[in-house]
Design a protein that fits this description.
mainly beta; 6-stranded antiparallel β-sheet; 4-stranded antiparallel β-sheet; 2 helices; 12% helix; 42% strand
Length: 193
Amino acid sequence: MKTFITTLSIILGVTFNISAQDFNDLDKSPLDVAYYPTKAAFRFFEKTPEKTKALEPVMKVYYSRPQKKGRKVFGELVPLDELWRTGANEAAEITFYKDVKIGGTTVKAGSYALAAFPTAKEWTLIINSVKDNWGVYVYDGNSNVAEVKSTPYKSKDTIEAFSIVMYEKSTGLVHLKMGWDDTIVEFPIEILD
């Protein structure tokens, strides 16, 4: 009987220990993905090979989406005149499935870190070759691949969660559009064939 109780105790202890593994809590700034074309992730639901091919991804951005929560964002929560990770947590990451041109510089297909340098009158979008970093704490400007500047404008509505979308502005020209709080900024990216 003693052996049975000892064995049962060990089994229950191991079972409890396995089921009690710690999982992280839900992140306050969840990770999200933006595609161009927007419905690229759903391309295999299309009925024809032509429609599927038309939705092959050209660009994809992984980024965390912090919330406004009643705070003033740019100039307080996100300081102006300082490098920003473009979201929260890990540095945002952009993948190009084709070569692109950003700010006059050709960027080869591949994955890169994405950062921004916001000022009151102008923002700079920065593509950097060093990725998989927490924030921009180890940022090295010598690893910049391309930069492009743009003028921010005011949103007519408050944007609660930091958001990124990409859309075709004209043939071969995609705009990466970021918005949060009352600020929107768009950066042109030329698709090279």
